[in-house]
Amino acid sequence: MTFDLALPSGLLGAVAPELILIVGAMALTLLAAWRPETDAHQRSVGKAALWLLALTAAAVVMYAARGASAAAPGIIAVDGFRWAADLVFLAAAAATIALGIESNPKDRFVTAESHVLVLLSAVGMMILAAARDLMIVFLGIETMSIAVYVLAAMDRRSVRAAEGALKYFLLGAFASAFLLYGIALVYGATGSTNLAVIGETIARFGLTGHTMISIGIAMLLVGFGFKVAAVPFHMWAPDVYEAAPAPITAFMAVAVKAGAFAALLRVWIESLSMMDAAWLAPVWWVAVATMVVGNLIALSQRNVKRLLAYSSIVHAGYLLVAVAAGTSLGTSAFLFYIVAYTLANFGAFAVVAALGEPGTTGPAIPDFEGLWSTRPWLAVGFGVCMLALLGLPVFGGAGFFAKWYVLQAAVTSPHGLVLLAVILVLTSVVSAGYYLDLVRAMFMRPRPEGARNPAVPPYTRVVLVTSVALLLAIGLFPGALATWARKNAAVTPSAARSPFAQGR
Amino acid sequence: MLAESLALSAALFTIGVVGVLVRRNAIIVFMCVELMLNAVNLSFVALARAHGTAGQVFAIFVMTVAAAEAAVGLAIIIAIFRHVRTVNLKNINLLRG
Questions:
Q1: Is residue A387 scored above 50 in pLDDT?
Q2: Beta bridge pairs of residue A488
Q3: What pTM value is reported for the model?
Q4: Which domains does chain B carry?
Q5: Which residues 39-58 in chain B show a CB within 8 A of chain A?
Q6: A51 band by pLDDT with thresholds 50, 70 and 90
């Protein structure tokens, strides 16, 4: 299946999965507005959204299985990396909606549109994974972000949610402006917004020391840094994550981050791999700062949602190590990592959503104490997710291998990232301080008097059981997923493909 | 011509950044973000003179996105005004940090 991206029909065929999802989401918007806000209506819209995601995933799988490709490089990538990332985004969106169907009424809002907004944001992420032009990157980021700003403010009765959304919106728009200025500078220096052309121009005219591109790269890094919540651009994340409803927090911590990273990887590898002298040191320092600062602040958190927010900041640091590697091993490590990270986080947030009480910002560590004695399976599930985020072998399932492949990418990278790999391992040891603290609270302390033991509703249970089962299964048999990640990692560096590279 | 336009764009962008960091009224902060976006638009249009139409197309996209962002942003600002009767970021500190 080959698409000629120069023709409108070819382009239309290449973005068919995105089109299915966006047209479906628009139809669902009408459906959602059709009836008054009730729990039953919210449920039926949520179920329709899940079916729509399944349909889109089927289209993506079909394209991937038939080996869809582009006749010539265009503004849209038609490759395995895109399909692989798409499947993770769609799974994350499905888990968000499944948790939201049951958790939103508990938080006393039954807005059917929240499910539609998750779909629209997922469209933005799919566009990001496909973008091979800075214009598409910008549109993808904005499609994703604008929907998430609204999602953060979904609980209209909560002043905290409104405040979190305002912070998220102002800083998100601020970051978009930086990203955009970076794009403008790169466009100014190379005369194109197409990733492949930018890479070739840099190689051909030897622009590696060009000031304008270097400043542009710094601006791009600031913009992406805000979107993935890397230190020192992370200040908004804990507040926003704490204030939003649990399923939406999970969506922001997992899918939004993965979407921004997918675009970052493609831009960095496809067009800026020759510019590593300009970006390696900043990425290195941002990765170190993110891993160290995130872990140290996470140690002092009591609110579990806020703790998981810092944990997601830390994981952005680990993923930046894979970006710094700048090789296809780094890309395949990223794909493996986001699968494990998505499963572990949605498992954890399913438990957080189940234990959360309306009108609060989610459970604190004391709410987990002695969970083993009253809700043993909930405690085991949450424990596995914590150990996966920590990266413990066997009990943490896929989490260990996710970190292993990132380390492997760092150590084999031509950029010489051994020190960065050492820092990753050391900060992981520090992270045991808070992940294991939660595990200890659940298994080794008595359940306090009067602690609530809420029942776990069916959709939440499905999300939790699926996440934990897949985590453990991948932990036992990582080979299949690793092969899949390696096969789909082929985001080719610009220098390798450029016809002008030989003369360099 | 190009150099002057880029210098003006950089100056406007910097004013926008300083405004976002210094001002405490949510509406003014948002206006400063819009100033940053329009500074970038000026760069795009100026660069399009040298590089062809892609920059102009980009500027149109930026304006479209900025309009969508303004709709959502003002709605969020109204939502918070209904709760706390102010849009001063200094007075909005239920959450830490």
A1: yes
A2: none
A3: 0.94
A4: 2-90 (1.10.287.3510)
A5: 39-40, 43-44, 47, 50-52, 54-55, 57-58
A6: very high
